[in-house]
Structure formats: C-alpha cells, structure tokens
Specification:
This protein has eight helices and seven strands, in the order E-H-E-H-E-H-E-H-E-H-E-H-H-H-E. By secondary structure, it is an alpha/beta fold. The longest helix has 29 residues.
Amino acid sequence: MSDNRSSGASYGLAGRVAFVTGAGSGIGRAIALRFAREGCRVGVLSRDPGRAAATAAAVEAEGVVAAHVACDVAERAAVAPAFAQLEAVLGPPHILVNNAGIIRFGKLLEIDEGDWDRVFRVNTDGALWSCRAVVPGMVARGYGRVVNMASWMGKQAAPLYGAYAASKFAVVGLTQALAAEVAGTGVTVNAVCPGLIVETEMRRQSEAVMARRGLPSAAERVATIPLKRPGYPDDVANVTAFLASDQSDYMTGEAVNVTGGLWMG
C-alpha cells in the first residue's frame, strides 16, 4: 500500500540531492520514493545490495537519477566511503535521512549482549557515523537538512523493547545535541518518531514476537490509537519531506511524532 498512497503536498525539493540509509524496504523505501516524486536525485543505502538496487530502480522509474550502494552503517569504516561513492555520482547532498534501524526483543535483565550491542551499533552509532561523514560538508556549504529516524519509543519505553527504546532515546539526544552544535550554519537537524507503522519488516518481526507471547496484535492495538488506524510508511515519508524542505526552516532539534495520537508528548 505504501507506494500507492498519496504523496501529499510538494515541498519544493526539485533538483536537490537526498541520501537515505536503510532505504531497501519499508519506511526508507517510501522516503526515497517521496524524494524522487519531489524531483530529488536520490542516493540509496541498504545493507542488502539487492534491495538497494531495487529501490534505486523504483526511484529512477519516477524520472530522476538514483545511485545505490550496499552499506552496513554499523561498520564505521564502511560509512564514509559509501557516501563518497554516492556523492561521486549525484553530487553533494542537501538532505541526509538516517533511517537504518533494527529491533531485537527481550527483557533488559535477560537480553543477549550481542543483540543489545547490535541494536545500538545500527540505530545510534550508524546515525552518528553517517552524520560525521555528511554533515561537515553541509556546514562548509552553508546548507543541509538532517532527519534522524527515532520512534515514539524514544519518548516512552515498553517491556520487551528495552534495547530498541534505549537506542531511540539516544537518537533523540543525538538529534538535539547536533542541532545545537551546528545551529547558525544553515544546517538543521530534526527527528521523526513513528508510532505503529505497518507494512514494514520491523512490524512483521514485532507481530511474530507478540503472537508467541499472546500479546495484542497491531490490528487489536489500532483501537488504542485516537485516529483509529495504523500508520503507513508514506505517513512517515510525508513528514520527512517537510522536515527536509525550506518550509521547516525554523525547526531544529525537534522530535516530531507520527503516531496518530498514540503518543502526544
């Protein structure tokens, strides 16, 4: 459904260059396609080379130029060369979306140490390494938009989601600190905090865990959402496009909820 939903208003992004991590599927793919429909040249990063290529092909089908690279953002040494490869094709980026993320489940007193480390390496460290590779150039050029993908669980944690929630709280903190550090340079840094978003790999993993533990499914939890529907990847992409545009000029350090009212803090 995400590829067929309304792309919303245009935000005047034609001709800009946008790099999106974790763009092989789900929210990242929807964001890449939204930028393509805005007329951006799009750099696609995904750990899965096949998915990266497929998203890039879908972007090009919108009539714009794309480039793609396989990169695990948790591997610090691989990040800067991956962005350099994209820049060599597309030019320097105006927009960076740090969307790559994973989830692992478990009680905090029991979760495997490797799972804890991996969640932070991808969700938090990966965003930092990407910013360190891209943002200095934005500062030097006097313009940039950084959008980090957090979560409503970066504001309110939940049982079994401890590692994920802690990593997303850290993403919100990273967003605020970097926003303050580059304020006045022409670069803004904001975060998006999605709620219950369906049609993503992460949601499918969550559903499997919930089913095994006899906990409510996404369909059952919709009743607790004030807008009475789940979110879709395009809902997140629409807000991301706004934050990537000049219409968000007076916003930085914000963590914007896209939860249908599930979380209002």
